[in-house]
Each structure stands twice: as structure tokens, then as C-alpha cells.
Amino acid sequence: MNSMGIALAVLGAACAALFAGIGSAKGVGLVGEAAAGVVSVDPNKFSKVLILQLLPGTQGLYGLLTAILMLSRIGIIGGNAAELTTSQGIMFLGAALPIAIVGLFSGIAQGRAAAAGVGITAKKPEHNGKGIIMAAMVETYAILALLVSILLIYNIAI
Amino acid sequence: MGREEYASAVSAVKAMESFLFTQSDMEQLINARTDAEFDSLVSAKATENKTLADVWEMLKSYAPDSRELEILLYRNDFHNLKAVLKAMISGREPENYFIEPSNVGIDVLKEAFRTKDSDILPDYMRETASEAYELLTGTLDGQLSDSLIDSSALRAMQKSAEEFGGDFMRKYAELITVFADMKTAYRCSRMGKSRAFLETALCGSTALDKESLIRASLGGTDNVISFLENTQYNESAHLLKENPAQFEKYSDDMITEFAETARMQAFGVEPLIAYYIAKEAEIKNLRIISVCRESGADIETITERLRKLYV
Fold first, then answer.
1. Among A residues 18-77, those touching chain B with beta carbons less than 8 Å apart
2. C-beta atoms surrounding B119 within 10 Å
């Protein structure tokens, strides 16, 4: 049994969860700091800023989803690991990269956009929705990366 | 501190900006029929940041490690240096002349002069404290010593802004210096001050060269005006001669206008500095309205004196 193939695939799943998770953690943390600043002055704005804080959290979920799908596809979940060649392992690793890399950077970028949106909520709470829309635009690229990762995972022949 | 580390502070400041007095609030205050109405309008709008000391406490609670913010208080520190120096030499208590907020406490200043140990002062004011003490005890020329301290404050602002400030703080320090130098050059010219005095009293900046200002000042007041009319601050030059109060207003308005450039920023120390400047202008406006009402000034006079608002 070629253990290198399966190891590379598992590494791919780990990367998807790891880097996308880091991006989300950084993004959510940044918005959290900004939100705390507003709430310390006006606690009534908590629910409005909370929505903005949640936005950069999705990249981490996409990473988790990718990792689960990949682990399921290669049989790790279920306890029946597939026999993979090294090139198949590399393909699975490559399949994880879109969401791993885009998840990392889009999580951070979305955090910055959402933190700026917190500033809108702080000063003009009635325009809160505009801040949400602007931050949500960044999501598009995380979704595209997730789609590519899923398509790749399900189209690698094993 | 990195720019993103100010995220919490900037958001808090943006939330507080919505409590700043607006143009319509100011109009209501000017038109208040009684003092009771005036007071109730002020209290209705006021937040916990009523004084600049409160504002400073709040800003420091959000950004405790920001050295850049401390530059905002250099002028207060140097003013307090003057106050303590003069009070101690004349055997009075300096407390009445001490202004807050400041980076250096009154006890530290008193101790520095009592023990003649300027090393306990922050490095930006050590040398000035020793020089001013020597100058005042040696010549008993309070005006010269004051001028030395004032110009040193401006130099310290410029130096610190250069060392650890961003572009915004550097520009702020330059604006403060330019307007102070313009006033000093004009006043010294009117009083016929010597080159030696001007060397001490003027600070100089990239926008207004010190040597050129000295030469203009030695040539008479008209010379100062015509020199300034050929600089980027030409709009305000004639005000120095015709209406010094309007010059003060113009310089304050220019600083508020500059502060407004930080309003759109989501990160960094700039919105905090801008908020401090905005509160400074707001408190000045409330004082102007209050004093004008007491003296029975008409609405037009009050409106003419009011500083530009940040919001």
C-alpha cells in the first residue's frame, strides 16, 4: 500500500480546515475588537454589530466542509481508507488549496471590511445594511474557491 | 501599535462622534432665551466626555500604548512647565495655572525644579526645563523664558511626530507650528523685538522657514504680511493685522478642516487624534457662546466667532 498518497490527501484536508480557519479567526477577531469599541459606548448596537462580526466566520466553515468532504471521499471517515497513488494524493492536496488559500486571505480581508462597517453602524446605525453588503461582497470569492475545491474533490478518479 | 490595533478605539470614537454638537445644536444654544435653557440644552447633549481631560482618559483607555497620541498634549505639558517655573520662582502655588490633560503631573514638575533634576522629566522637555530655569533665574526676563518654552513645545511636537508619528501627526504638528510662528513673528515685529529674541521665540517648519520669518519680522509688520502673502497661508496674512480674533478662528478652522480628513479612516490613530481636535473645538465653542451670552453680544457676533464644527 502506498501510504504517501493518502498522507498527501489528509494533508490537503488539514490545510483546508487550518488556513481557512486562521483567516476566519483573524477576521472575526478584528471585527470583534471594533464591535466591542462600539458596544462600550452604546450597548444597544450589539445585535447590529454582531451580524458584521459573524460574516468573516464563514471561511472557517467552508474549510471544515471541504475537509469533511475530502476525508469522506478518501474513506477516512467511515474507517475504510482508499488506496491512493502519490499523484492522486497530490491531486487531493491541490483540490484543498483554493479554499485553504482564498479562505485565509478572504477571511482577513472580510474582517477588515466588516470592521469598517462597524464604523458605519457606530455613527449611522440606520445605514448598517450597507456595511453588511460591502463586507458580504468579499464572500463571493470564498464561495468560488469552495466550489472549485468541491468540484475537484468529486472529480478526482480513485 | 499597528493600525488594526486601533479597531476598537476607532469604532468607539465613531460612536461618540454622534454625540458631538451639530450646527443646529449650536444655533439652539445661541438662541436659548435663558441660562437655564442653555444649561439644559448642554446637559441633554453632553456625554461623559465633558472636559478634555475626560476625552483624554477615554482615548488612553482604548489606546494605552500610543506614544503618538501623547504628542497632542505636548503644548499643555510645556504650558505647565511655564506655570510651575514661574510660580516656584515667585513663591506661589502653581496649581491654579496647571492645565489638564497633560503627560507630566504637577508633582513631577515641582520635584524637577525643587531638586534641579530635569532627568525625571520626559526627554522631550528635559533640556528646555533646564534652559528656561537658567534663563529666568539669570535674566529675570519672563517673556523670553516663555518664548523659549513655547517654541520648544513646537519643536518637540515636530521632532516626536517625525520620530514615531504618522503623516497625519506630522502635518498636524506643522500646522500648529505655522500658525504659532505667524502670530509670534507679527507680534515681535510690532514690539520691535531683536533678532536674538526672534531666534528663541520662533520655531520654523518646512512650510515657513525660520530665517525668512526672522528677516521679515525685523523689517516691520508690513514686511511680515507681505512675506506671508507669498506663502500657502496667504489667505490669513491680512487677518493678523486687521482682526487678530478672526486669525485665531481661521487657524482653528484650518486645523478642524485638516482633522476632517481622518473621518473616513477605519483603522489607525488618526480618527482618535481627529476626535480630540473636534472636542477641543466643541469645548471652545461652548465657552465662546457662554461668554458672549454673559456679555450680551448679539447673535451675529457670536456666530462670527464660532469655530468650524467637525460634524
1. 30-31, 33-38, 40-42, 45
2. 10
**What is the C-alpha separation between A39 and B273, in angstroms, rounded?**
21
Residue B14 to residue A30, Cβ atoms within 8 A: no
User: Quick one: CA dihedral B179, B185, B191, B196, positive or negative?
Assistant: positive
Check CB contact of A157 with chain B, cutoff 8 Å. Answer: no
* Most A-contacting residue of B1, B10, B11 (CB-CB within 10 A), to test interface: B11
Domains of chain A in start order, with CATH, are 3-155 (1.20.120.610)
* DSSP 8-class letter at B115: T
Summarize pLDDT for B179-226 with one digit per residue, the tens: 999 999 999 999 999 999 999 999 999 999 999 999 999 999 999 999
Quote the CA–CA distance of A66 and A16 in Å, as a whole number.
6
For residue A35, give the nearest of A124, A116, A126 by alpha carbon.
Answer: A116
For chain B, give every domain's residue range: 67-165
For the stretch B273-299, pLDDT in tens is 999 999 999 999 999 999 998 888 888
Region B67-165: CATH code: 1.20.1690.10
CB nearest B266 (choices: A40, A45, A119): A119
